[in-house]
User: Fold this.
Amino acid sequence: MHRLIIVEGLPCSGKSTTSKYIADSIGAKFYDEGSGNHPADYEFHSFIKNKELCSFLPEEQVLIKQNAVSKADGYIISLSLFSGELFDKLLQHKIYDFLPWETEKPLMLDKWTKFVHEAESDNQYVFNCVLLQNPMCETMMRFGFDIQMSSEYITSICNIIRPMNPFIVYLHSDNIRNAIEKAVSERGTDWLNSVIDYHCNGAYGKVEHLTGFDGYIEALEERQRRETEILRGLNVQYMIINNPNENWNKTYSRIIQELNTAT
Assistant:
């Protein structure tokens, strides 16, 4: 039995609805992107090293300690518990987007390890996009690492989750531009401007001199190419579905059939 199923793909590929469908169909625990309390991911958390705590006011230190998970070398804090000036200060220590890679990487791998150790043995779990998308956004888009470094990190995660016999569903798109253009009418121009800024002004975007909507699409095309290459090299079971939106009923049927026959 696959105790962990992860649905991957680019933005607007249908990951959320697909992963929810799978979870409902097999009676699994479902964790969506941005759920706020993900067992294997730090979506909206900060990390304060012990030596950094002194930069906060005494009363702020008390609040941090009261609401944090203590680690050997610091504190993990959910940003959702804070607001105002203290939130702004904590945001500068956000694990995603702000911490250096040498600090972020071991924190994330430790979170995956904790999940595997604490996962209920008689339950299945379905995740949306934490194995490829999140690591690629950090290693490729933010830091500008090459595909080998991204692959090594993702392989490390797969080695951790191997006891759960993971299965990866990848939703591949031949027309990324069209999918994003359709999504803009639903998500709005603020969302579009935000993702363009993220992809064009990170390390990868700057090296490739990406700008505007075309630059965003170019970044996504390369990310999809790298993700599928990495996926094919991982020692995990997977399926890649090309253009799943052409017939969602057929897509869902294929996935459930594959899950029922995969070992």
Remarks:
- The chain has a mean pLDDT of 96.
- The first helix runs from residue 15 to 26.
- The beta strands are 4-9, 29-31, 45-49, 68-71, 74-78, 125-128, 167-172, 237-242.
